[in-house]
Amino acid sequence: MNVAEVRTLQRRGRAVRTGLWKQPVQGRVKVHDLGLEGDVNADKRYHGGNQKAVYAYAGEDIAWWESELGRELGPGFFGENLTLSGVDVSEALIGERWEVGTAMVEVTEPRTPCWKLAAKVGDPR
Q1: Structurally, how many domains does the chain consist of?
Q2: Greatest extent of the chain over all pairs of C-alpha atoms, in Å
Q3: Cβ-Cβ contacts under 8 Å for 76 (sequence gap 6 or more)
Q4: Contacting residues for 125 by C-beta, under 8 A, at least 6 apart
Q5: What's the domain range around 98?
Q6: How far apart are CA 22 and CA 71, in angstroms?
Q7: Whole-angstrom Cα distance, residue 47 to residue 42?
Q8: Which of 7, 80, 103, 117 is found 20 to 30 A from 44 (Cα to Cα)?
Q9: Given this model, what pLDDT does residue 26 score?
Q10: Would you state the pLDDT for residue 124?
Q11: Which helix (H) or strand (E) covers residue 56, if one does?
């Protein structure tokens, strides 16, 4: 599991809050209706809430991006709360339910990357 505190980015002369810089945590993490304990979603218009409480990303996709970008990224880099292994998240179906420890999570929608992720990888767009 990966969680983050709010961080401020500068973009086009404006300070913008983000919870994208997730870091792995040890031990159990409580899953609540609106997200993980210890995790902050800074822009609640697009992130968090009961339909987007946990974001999952495949570890294999992180490895692909590490090879593509030529640098280590690690779990949580893409803002995911849950870094999965052996699960093809690109083939996940809306309504699928996954058991994660003692929690049951349901796939509700795909994640569309935003400009904050582009900024994190160094893309000026």
Answers
A1: 1
A2: 44
A3: 2, 4, 21, 22, 23, 24, 83
A4: 115, 118
A5: 2-121
A6: 17
A7: 8
A8: 103
A9: 94
A10: 64
A11: strand 56-58
